[in-house]
Design a protein that fits this description.
Helix content is about 55%, strand content about 0%. It has six helices and no strands. By secondary structure, the chain is an all-alpha fold.
C-alpha cells in the first residue's frame, strides 16, 4: 500500500504567497457554499424556492452550494432577504475574537476573514 498524504499535513505546509492566496480564496468559497446550504435548509426551502425568492435560477443556487461561484455583496443581500435573515458586514480590530461572532462562525452562520 502506498503512503498517503493527509489533508492536515497539506494544510500545515508553508506555501508561496500566490498559493496561500489561492488556498484562502478556496476556503472562503467553501465557507460560502456551506452557508448557502445551511440557510436554505434551515428555512426549509428547495433550491428552486430559494432561487425564485432571489430572482435567479435553481442551477445558480446549485453552483453556489457546490462551491462553483464567488459571492458578491449583492448576492449575499439577496440570500439574506430570501431566507428572512439580516446581513451584517463588519470591519474592526479583533472582530473575529468577539464571542458572539465566534459562536455564529462555529454554528456555520457567519464567515470571518482576517486581513
Amino acid at each position: 500500500m502506498s503512503d498517503r498524504t493527509s489533508w492536515k499535513y497539506l494544510g500545515s505546509i508553508e506555501r508561496s504567497t500566490a498559493a496561500q492566496e489561492a488556498y484562502d480564496d478556496e476556503i472562503g468559497i467553501s465557507q460560502f457554499r456551506n452557508l448557502v446550504y445551511l440557510l436554505r435548509t434551515e428555512a426549509r426551502m428547495t433550491q428552486a424556492e430559494l432561487a425564485s425568492r432571489m430572482g435567479t435560477t435553481q442551477s445558480a443556487i446549485a453552483r453556489m452550494e457546490g462551491g462553483g461561484s464567488r459571492p458578491t455583496l449583492d448576492t449575499l443581500e439577496k440570500l439574506a432577504r430570501a431566507v428572512g435573515q439580516d446581513l451584517v458586514v463588519g470591519v474592526g480590530v479583533g472582530l473575529g475574537n468577539d464571542r458572539t461572532i465566534v459562536k455564529l462562525v462555529d454554528q456555520g452562520h457567519a464567515v470571518v476573514r482576517c486581513a
